[in-house]
Description:
This protein has helices spanning 7-16, 40-43, 46-61, 64-69, 82-93, 135-146, 191-194; strands at 20-26, 32-37, 74-78, 97-103, 110-112, 123-131, 150-159, 173-178, 183-184, 200-201. With 204 residues, the chain is of the alpha/beta class. The mean pLDDT is 93.
Amino acid sequence: MDLIPSQDDVVSLLQQTGALRHGHFVYPSGLHANEYLQVALAMRHYEHLKTLSVGLSRKVRANPELRAMIPELSVVAPGGGGVPVAYGICEALRSKQVYWAEAECEGGPLRLRQYFVQSPGEKVLLVDDIFRTGRKLGQLKSLVESNGGEVVGMAVIIYQPTPKTPDFGDLPLYYLARLEARYSNDADTCELCAKGLPVETVWI
């Protein structure tokens, strides 16, 4: 596999590890989809985590402005699936540090742990395993900026937008593969429901 794996390489890896599944799924938001992705199922194998994070880091490094920031760059993730990706990218880039934000309770706002302090003007690369709804990355961006940090880019293993995924404007976004699932807002508009296909409820 190349140092930057192709879209086909990434999809194949996800399928082989069971991280990408096809069928009829309903998400906690109520969205119905024809595929479900859980990148953590691939990243449980260290060699796959390294392949994905190194490939993603090389996409970031290709940007000359970001490359110049690397010695002082902080890699920041929402807690959960983004943390191993953040450490993998930090190691590959040899950037300054890694930290993450967590929600105190399910669905609550993200916050940094006690005694985590951001420096004014700190350059921050936001990282996660999946960019789907953009909710966590949006919260994290707001949190970093409210503490005086500057978000200079976003990097995710998989970009899998939904119809409601926000646009972060001119902020650079890097990803290894883009997946286009078919979404429906509810059972009434879902073609898979109309076909009578069994549905599986998933949680993120």
